[in-house]
Amino acid sequence: MAAEANAQLAMKKAGWAKEAEVAQVESKKIVAIREAELQREVERMNALTTTEKLKADLLTKATVEFETKSQEANAVLYAKQKAAETYLYEKQKELEAVKAAAEAELAHRSSRGSRDLHTLHSRRLWR
């Protein structure tokens, strides 16, 4: 009976050892699966971080380009406005000169006409 009990005990120990080995293998698999899930999550977060950094870099680059182009366009517009103002000023001065010359000519003719009229009138009176 002791041999039979020893055999049963050995069988139970073997079963327990097998169960412990299975539990250990399952535990290692669970740990490996969890590590893989965590690694995948880390990689996903790294990819998101990289994507956000690229977006920020592109946005910064686009913003700088926009500001540069905007300043260039403003400089061109300013130069054109100043050129137009200069042209307008020159034309106004030319117009003022023409007007002054015309007024002087008119005054001269008016004065001469008045003199001629006075001379003509004086001659008629003396006749």
Give the end-to-end Cα distance, rounded to a whole number of Å. Answer: 184 Å
Per DSSP, the total helix count is: 1
| Mean pLDDT across every amino acid position | 91
The largest β sheet comes out as:
none
Poorly predicted segments: none
Strand content: under 5%
Shape: rod-shaped
What is the string of SSEs from the N terminus onward?
A: H
Oligomer: single chain
What is the CA-based Rg, rounded? 54 Å
Q: Could you give the count of β-strands?
A: 0
Structural class determined from secondary elements: mainly alpha
Helix content: over 70%
Q: Briefly, what is this?
A:
By secondary structure, the protein is mainly alpha-helical. 98% of the residues lie in helices and 0% in strands. The protein contains one helix and no strands.
Describe the protein in words.
The structure is a single chain. The chain is mainly α and 127 residues long. 98% of the residues lie in helices and 0% in strands. It contains 1 helix and no strands. It starts with a helix and ends with a helix. The mean pLDDT is 91.
Outline the secondary-structure elements.
Blueprint: H1 2-126
List keywords for this structure.
127 residues; mainly alpha; 98% helix
